[in-house]
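Translate structure to sequence.
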């Protein structure tokens, strides 16, 4: 019930206008957001890189509904790519397609996406297409497939374990040897589209992770000297120790080398786990959002974990 309320609030304009004005809310959000400016993000990634951890930069913003907004967002994302290149950051870029036109026109969105992928290719940078709510799942996968069919090899996608369709989507993308980041999912979805219980979501996550490892093994693992620009085929996005331990156990059983799986965690959450995995020799990437449109992202993080909500409320009481 509480999770549903917080996800509702993440989309409610009245709540955004109210909560965004609270100074303590902004301070609390900065636990999960690297800052509001690109320079803040560059500093945050540099700190992660010093610890041997890579990043995925996310310029916050979604659900743009005018062509001008989508063009502006695309230009800003190109600036992020240039900053990664100029500062020699070990980072890739994450993109939400609703930010660059998916809600407005699919052709416009594809034009903007290809502009981003072209600049990323010039700069030797990988781009991960984020997955949003289920109303955009099919369109997102279709545009991803178009990019692969056009020969772009520097692009991957996110799949969400809580959707029933994801098992079929994984098989659909298997022929491309697609680079996939597996997550549980952070949006409110109807019971006819998504597993209603966390136990079912967890079981789906483990099953999908095992299938991803099988596909990666069939495709051939990266060499020990593989560059850090292109991530492995498999990325596991979770902070749950049981899932991470399960994946590592599968890797050992299937003789999957450590560099064939990248563990991805969120900025500001479980820094100890990030460092521990990195010290064990596993590639670790931290999803690092920045920008002024922090409210929807922040509310979804509160919905995901009670500990995050407790942190927020403690700041409220201090404020």
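Result:
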């Amino acid at each position: 019930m509480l999770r549903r309320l917080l996800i509702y609030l993440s989309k409610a304009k009245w709540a955004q206008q109210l909560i965004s004005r609270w100074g303590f809310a902004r301070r609390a959000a900065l636990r999960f957001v690297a800052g509001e400016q690109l320079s803040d993000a560059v500093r945050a990634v540099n700190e992660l890189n010093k610890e041997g951890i890579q990043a995925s930069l996310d310029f916050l913003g979604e659900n743009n509904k005018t062509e001008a907004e989508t063009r502006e967002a695309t230009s800003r994302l190109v600036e992020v790519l240039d900053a990664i290149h100029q500062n020699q950051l070990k980072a890739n870029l994450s993109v939400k397609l609703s930010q660059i036109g998916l809600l407005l026109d699919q052709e416009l969105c594809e034009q903007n996406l290809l502009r981003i992928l072209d600049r990323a290719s010039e700069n030797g940078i990988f781009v991960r297409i984020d997955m949003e709510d289920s109303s955009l799942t099919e369109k997102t996968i279709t545009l991803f497939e178009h990019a692969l069919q056009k020969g772009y090899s520097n692009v991957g996608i996110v799949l969400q374990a809580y959707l029933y369709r994801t098992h079929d989507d994984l098989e659909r993308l298997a022929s491309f040897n697609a680079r996939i980041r597996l997550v549980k999912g952070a949006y409110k979805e109807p019971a006819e589209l998504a597993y209603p219980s966390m136990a079912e979501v967890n079981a789906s996550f483990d099953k999908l992770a095992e299938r991803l490892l099988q596909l990666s093994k069939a495709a051939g693992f990266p060499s020990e000297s593989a560059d850090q620009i292109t991530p492995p085929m498999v990325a596991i996005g979770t902070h749950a120790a049981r899932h991470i331990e399960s994946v590592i156990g599968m890797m050992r059983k299937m003789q999957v080398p450590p560099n064939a799986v990248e563990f991805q965690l969120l900025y500001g959450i479980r820094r100890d786990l990030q460092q521990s995995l990195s010290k064990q020799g596993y590639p670790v990437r931290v999803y690092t959002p920045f920008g002024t449109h922090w409210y929807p992202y922040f509310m979804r993080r509160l919905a995901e974990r009670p500990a995050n909500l407790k942190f927020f409320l403690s700041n409220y009481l201090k404020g």
